[in-house]
Write a structure and sequence with these properties.
single chain, 86 residues, mainly alpha, Multidrug-efflux Transporter Regulator, Chain: A, Domain 2, globular
Length: 86
């Protein structure tokens, strides 16, 4: 018997806020800056994010705790994404 494909879990901004403690505005700003990326959109036009967003938010918090600027963090992720082919 062939198993049906199970869809990946995607999160709305409200869920990310609830689970991460990061504000809705911060999620929006990080998306605009390219620090995090939406993976899909709902039919109503809402952004959806995959589980990677939580790793990214943890990394951003770690960099901020080290007093790194958002510009530094943006460059770090841009380089990391380019090396990964994304």
């Amino acid at each position: 018997m062939r198993r049906r494909r199970i869809p990946r879990k995607l999160y709305r901004i409200g869920e990310i806020v609830d689970y991460s403690g990061v504000s809705r505005q911060t999620i929006h700003n990080y998306t605009i800056m390219g620090l995090i990326r939406e993976c899909d959109w709902t039919r109503g036009g809402h952004r959806l994010y995959d589980e990677e967003v939580f790793d990214r938010l943890d990394s951003i918090a770690g960099f901020k705790a080290q007093h790194k600027t958002l510009g530094f963090i943006q460059e770090f992720f841009a380089k990391q994404d380019a090396e990964a082919g994304g």
